[in-house]
Amino acid sequence: MSYFYIDGYNLIFTLTESKHSLFHQRTGIIRYLQKEFARLHLKGMIVFDGSRRRDEESGLSYASPLDIAYAPSGQSADEFILEKLEWEKKAHHITVVSNDRALVRNARSFGAKTQSNDAFIKYLNGKTSKKLRKSIEPKETAQNMKRLLKIFEERLGEEQ
Questions:
Q1: Strands 113-115, 3-7: pairing kind
Q2: How many CB atoms neighbour CB 103 within 10 A?
Q3: Closest to 103 in 3D by CA, of 116, 88, 93
């Protein structure tokens, strides 16, 4: 059985171009994935950058096989996932879900499988009803492009 590590914000920004708060978007994707993971008997972890807010539910609040993790201060979700893979003895049983090329490349170097956000949603939709298939169409959003550009500029600034 495969275990999934999901790059949380990468998935959110691929799926939606919402005007709702990040908290609302996070809660929505967590609830959707919790339901799907429980129904399909999948196991995994969705990882978000930064620590959770005090008023936000923790991963322990959800009764399903999807764990929710927030990368510690000073560490990105990508680094958190890669650190987990580094210590994993059976990385070939793990699938990393992300459109982040660097994360995908590094995850593969540890022996993990990778899946794009689009392929992951299609995988879930292939096991769900036609009604749900029509409701979730992954797409690249302006919000995600701005987020990625900011990360790129910050990392470029650190290297100089």
A1: unpaired
A2: 22
A3: 116
The residue segments making up the domain with residue 12 are 3-159
Task: Show the beta-strand stretches assigned E in 98-157.
Answer: 113-115
Phi first, then psi, for residue 111 (nearest 5°) are 95, 5
Phi, psi of 133 (to 5 degrees): -55, -40
Question: In this structure, what token pair is assigned to residue 15?
Answer: 């799926």
Dihedral, 75, 77, 79, 85 alpha carbons, nearest 10: 140
Distance CA 144, CA 14 (A): 7
Tell me how long the chain is: 160
Would the pTM count as exceeding 0.90?
A: no
Question: Could you give the number of structural domains in the chain?
Answer: 1
> Order of strands across the sheet with 3-7?
66-70, 43-48, 3-7, 94-97, 113-115
The CATH number of whichever domain residue 150 belongs to comes to 3.40.50
In tens, the pLDDT along 61-114 reads 555 689 999 988 889 999 999 999 999 888 899 999 999 999 999 999 999 999
| Close Cβ partners of 115 (under 8 Å, ≥ 6 residues apart) | 95, 96, 97, 123
